[in-house]
Amino acid sequence: MGWLPDGALLVVSMDERRLYRRGSDGQLVMYAELAAIHSGQSNDMVVDHRGWAYAGNVGFDYYSGEAPWPTCIAAVAPDGAVAVAADHLHCPNGSVITPDCRTFIVAETFASRLTAFDIDEEGRLFNRRIFADLDGYAPDGICLDAEGCVWVAVALANSVIRVREGGEILTQIPIEAARPYACMLGGMDGRDLFICCASDHDPAVTVKVRSGRIDVARVNVGSSGGWP
User: Fold this and answer.
1) How does pLDDT run across 181-213, given as a tens digit for each residue?
2) Domains delineated in the chain
3) Bond preceding residue 228 cis, omega within 30 of 0
């Protein structure tokens, strides 16, 4: 999810590979069609202060056992036009944009790394580089703190980790009896780390077990003020 400058909510429909806009009247209206460039289920998204939305995708049919292959991030302009923002990414997942709106960071789940790009005035991504090599950790959802470090949900490690640019892991918080899939800094002072957890990621399992929960951890450094 993400918010447009006018306060409308954008929502990713994973299976449909679409973005929907929810206005003040509560109605969902199709905002952008992503199927032409998303080869797998659409995934996490970030929206900046100008209204540019960036959405990753799995890139292949995970649940049928297909082998992973590289895919792209879709960029949706404020007028709804869709284009490829960056390609040859391995399951681009959680993403953040720095407060100055100049740097985009994305979790490549099947490459075990965070990858950074510069953002130009037209919303294009360029100057690809490795922000952090996570050495076997498979990153999922991420968020950015005020010191420029990234909190990473690592479902297969049952933990969330705080990583600085270059790959040093500064903090690791274990999650009991669940897997963390996303995290976000918030609360009154931005120092509450909210962690979305479940026992599994397979919809066929989770719809029956209904094990989803939100944990919260108190941390020392607050939100960056960027996106998200």
Assistant:
1) 999 999 999 999 999 999 887 777 777 888 899
2) 2-218 (2.120.10.30)
3) yes
